[in-house]
Amino acid sequence: MMVAAGATVAQLQAQSPLDPLDNRILLCHALGLTRVGLITQSERALTEDEAQRLSALIQRRLDGEPIAYIVGRREFYGLPFNVGPAVLIPRPDTELLVELAIEHLPPSGRALDMGTGSGAIAVSLAHARPDAAVTALDVSPEALAVARGNAELNQVAVRLLESDWYAAVGDERFDLVVSNPPYIADGDRHLSEGDLRFEPPGALTDFADGLSALRTIVAGAPARLAPRCWLLMEHGYDQAVAVRALLAAQGYTDVQSWRDLAGIERVSGGRRP
């Protein structure tokens, strides 16, 4: 789509082919404006360079690229996070896992975030609980670079380790293990729809039944958890029963699930006996 030089901010808000929220985000990004600036500078006319820049951004969105990748940033748990194609885009559903982690981590506790991606969970936890020592693992060096930048951006200390699941922490003990692992089953139609088409497949699916990463985490956590401490995991909308069964079969106690704002059982967990 081509935006004409000389078009005003007000005209572009009224005539865009995009969703109004997407359009406002791209206008702010292309023109260096705040949301207030869109109002106070509504009669500002675009230069040729601005029109070309905005045209390119709008076309990328019309082609399906996620807004968060286009602008390179997404807010999560009230904090800014840089994102790109190496990591999943943080989603509001996962804020439930952060809230539960904050609640279940003992004072001055040690927390382990498995498969950290952008670092959204680990950084949010470290920001909310400066008393905690937070370690985050990911198998992807590219993801760890993004997470490291986000820890610096939000001025928190997180120990980041390249690791295939628990490998890099050996027999270290933690007071909480959390994870939002790949849990979409291979071949699920959602993988070919919307933003998921652009996100790293290995962070979305286990290329199996959707439960293999969860099985690995459940099996390995008791050896890394202090007694009576919690394992908390995000999972798919229809996986709570299966995840509770995995936890119970491994001898976890107080096994339960928590519902997100949509009423869906989104996080399950249990305590090491």
TrEMBL record:
Binding site for substrate: N180, P181, P182, Y183
EC number(s) on file: 2.1.1.297
Gene Ontology molecular function, alphabetical: nucleic acid binding; peptide chain release factor N(5)-glutamine methyltransferase activity
One Gene Ontology biological process: methylation
Catalytic activity: L-glutaminyl-[peptide chain release factor] + S-adenosyl-L-methionine = N(5)-methyl-L-glutaminyl-[peptide chain release factor] + S-adenosyl-L-homocysteine + H(+)
Residues covered by the Methyltransferase small domain: 100-188
Residues reported in the UniProt entry to bind S-adenosyl-L-methionine: G115, T116, G117, S118, G119, D138, W165, N180
UniProt keywords, alphabetically: Methyltransferase, S-adenosyl-L-methionine, Transferase
Domain Release factor glutamine methyltransferase N-terminal stretches: 10-72
Statement: the UniProt record of this protein carries the keyword S-adenosyl-L-methionine: yes
Protein's UniProt keywords contain Repeat: no
Biological function: Methylates the class 1 translation termination release factors RF1/PrfA and RF2/PrfB on the glutamine residue of the universally conserved GGQ motif.
Family note: Belongs to the protein N5-glutamine methyltransferase family. PrmC subfamily.
Protein name listed in UniProt: Release factor glutamine methyltransferase
Organism in which the protein naturally occurs: Pseudoduganella namucuonensis
Gene from which the chain derives: prmC
